[in-house]
């Protein structure tokens, strides 16, 4: 790109134009995907510590693209958030997930829950609390069957926080996802409606390798417990991490060592499962 009369805007313009076009294209693709039902959730089990019993599943969004195959959320969730399409997509995931957990509860006879990721902009929508209530009613499930995962960025959205408070009064639990990686202030822990903390895999992956990670993880668990919050560790990739989390008193764990996220057809087999170590 060339420079004209010292005006750099020309260079920026053409690349901006390209980026805008590409964005528009993906946005149209997302719209179409929503209509065609190309979004699906995969499910990753959560195991209780110290028992090793599977107690729930996290629903993780996938886009089954006709040409590109299975597209991971990192490749389209940011744009879906930007365009607001994450709200209808998220609503679909929520209904699917609740429908699944209802079936798993019936078949297994156990009080399993499903955990669903919620973007801040989705939670801020005026009809969010009603949507949750309707989805639970449709599935015939109590609020306890649902855990909503939000990230620390939610603190910037007071409307969303109000909605979470309303939803929480119906028995739905709220977890802070990726805990420790976002806003550095701990002050919001006193004010946010929250039941659980998910310790980010960034800390978990270094367990047993770096003593500082162990110290940080231990402190996070103690802090959470002092605030009567439950702790889930994510990204458990080996037995050593599992054993260390167990000895640190962590309440539940999730990660490739237990199971990768699996398509819905494979999840049922994991319902009655127990991690042995
Ligand atoms: P997240 O909520 O932090 O989800 C955990 C991610 O870590 C998932 O990636 C999961 O597959 C991956 N993971 C699980 N166990 C391990 C492990 O042992 N090691 C490693 N290295 N990774 C592990 P995934 O499925 O690609 O999802 C990426 C992100 O996309 C999620 O991060 C979440 O922020 C977002 N996302 C997923 N589904 C939804 C959704 O339905 N709605 C919204 N708004 N965001 C979603
Ligand atoms: Ca999550
Ligand atoms: Ca996470
Ligand atoms: Ca994440």
Automatic annotation (TrEMBL):
Annotated signal sequence range: none
Bilayer-crossing regions: none
Domain EAL stretches: 23-275
Part of the whole protein covered: 670 to 946 of 976
Domain of life: Bacteria
Protein name: EAL domain-containing protein
Source organism per UniProt: Muricoccus nepalensis
């Amino acid at each position: 790109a060339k420079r004209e009369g010292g005006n750099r805007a020309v260079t920026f313009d053409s690349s901006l134009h390209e980026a805008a076009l590409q964005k528009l294209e993906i946005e149209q693709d997302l719209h179409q995907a929503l209509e065609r039902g190309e979004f699906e959730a995969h499910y990753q089990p959560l195991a209780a510590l110290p028992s090793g019993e599977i107690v729930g599943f996290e629903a993780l969004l996938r886009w089954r693209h006709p040409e590109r195959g299975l597209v991971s959320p990192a490749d389209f969730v940011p744009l879906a958030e930007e365009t607001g399409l994450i709200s209808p997509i998220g609503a679909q995931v929520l209904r699917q997930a609740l429908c699944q957990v209802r079936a798993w509860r019936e078949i297994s006879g156990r009080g399993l829950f499903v955990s669903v990721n919620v973007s801040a902009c989705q939670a801020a929508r005026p009809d969010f609390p009603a949507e949750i209530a309707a989805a639970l009613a449709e599935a015939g499930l109590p609020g306890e069957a649902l855990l909503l995962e939000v990230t620390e960025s939610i603190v910037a959205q007071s409307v969303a926080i109000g909605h979470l408070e309303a939803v929480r009064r119906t028995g739905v639990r709220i977890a802070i996802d990726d805990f420790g990686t976002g806003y550095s202030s701990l002050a919001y822990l006193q004010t946010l409606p929250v039941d659980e903390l998910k310790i980010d895999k960034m800390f978990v992956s270094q367990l047993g390798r770096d003593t500082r990670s162990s110290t940080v993880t231990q402190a996070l668990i103690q802090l959470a417990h002092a605030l009567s919050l439950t702790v889930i560790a994510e990204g458990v990739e080996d037995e050593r991490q599992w054993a260390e989390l167990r000895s640190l008193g962590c309440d539940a764990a999730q990660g490739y060592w237990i199971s990768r996220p699996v398509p819905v057809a494979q999840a049922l087999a994991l319902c009655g499962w127990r991690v042995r170590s």
